[in-house]
Design a protein that fits this description.
There is one protein chain. About 20% of the residues are buried. Helix 2 runs antiparallel to helix 3. This protein has a domain of about 80 residues. About 35% of the residues lie in helices and about 30% in strands. The protein is α+β, with helices and mostly antiparallel strands and about 280 residues long. Strand 14 and strand 15 form a beta hairpin. It is flat. The protein has five helices and 15 strands.
Length: about 280
């Protein structure tokens, strides 16, 4: 879980030095992970991991009598792998206990690791794609710079009670990305070029996919819906053609939709087509 803080209440001296060195401009917001929650999660995962490890090494006591040697080996491997999974998750949670994100006018500083002075710096004009994905276990913001390492910021996108720092952070990242890239996108559209959004291409004339092209007058409606595939729910942009029914729709998963925030802004504000 990330908490928003003011610059006065947060220890931002090192971060501010990094931001000044990278010319990131004026400070906007600071978010940090709850260390108490990180330690509790790490302790719980470590406990279950060690418990399973003990059960595996002790042969589950005298009550564990597999019918065959092969079944015994399979059980040991199964519980052993599960125990390693718990231990690995515990280490990851511990490593992320110092995670924090500082937003500036021209970029952000992402701090993560056992040491609080380990930082990733990215400028908004260097970010090529922004995407978010989430499920019942949490979520993440993914930034892909043009010539750099991908940055993943873990957030709880399922937190519903306002104010939600995670949702606030997502919106702020998307707002800054749009502010820096909207004019370039508009220039490309006005010159007759298409904009690539993964499996979808946007132009002033309409939307093209690998299978078809629909002009704006051929599109009846676009909306965000929650769909289900293999017992997994996900949000998707759903597009309905004029005269078509529900089964003739075309859907695009938002988690696989790079720069959806920019697409949404262009379609609604500049092209004038509603997305409900």
């Amino acid at each position: 879980m990330l908490f928003a803080q003011s610059p006065q209440s947060a220890n931002l001296s090192l971060v501010q030095q990094v931001a000044a060195f990278s010319n990131l401009g004026s400070f906007i917001a600071y978010y940090r992970r709850s260390k108490v929650r990180a330690f509790l999660v790490s302790f719980a995962l470590l406990f279950f991991g060690l418990l399973l490890t003990f059960l595996v090494l002790s042969g589950f006591g005298i009550s564990f009598h597999p019918p065959t040697v092969l079944v015994g080996i399979v059980w040991v491997l199964l519980f052993g792998i599960t125990a390693l999974g718990f231990l690995h998750a515990s280490i990851i949670s511990l490593l992320r206990r110092n995670e924090h994100v500082t937003i500036y006018d021209q970029g952000l500083v992402h701090g993560i690791g056992l040491q609080q002075h380990q930082y990733h710096v990215v400028r908004w004009d260097e970010v090529e794609t922004v995407s978010t994905n989430g499920n019942e276990k949490g979520g993440q913001i993914i930034l892909r710079p043009q010539n750099g390492k991908q940055i993943s910021i873990r957030v709880n996108l399922q937190q519903k009670l306002p104010p939600s720092p995670a949702i606030s952070l997502v919106r702020l990242v998307e707002e800054r990305f749009i502010a820096w890239h909207i004019q370039g996108a508009l220039s490309q559209l006005r010159s007759g070029q298409e904009l690539n959004f993964g499996n979808l291409f946007l132009s002033w004339q309409g939307i093209r996919t690998s299978k078809t092209f629909l002009s704006w007058r051929d599109i009846a409606k676009m909306e965000i819906r929650v769909l289900t595939d293999d017992d997994r729910s996900f949000k998707a942009l759903v597009m309905y053609p004029v005269g078509g029914n529900f089964w003739q729709r075309t859907s695009f998963r938002l988690e696989d939709f790079p720069n959806y925030c920019l697409f949404h802004e262009l379609v609604i504000r500049y092209i004038g087509f509603p997305i409900t």
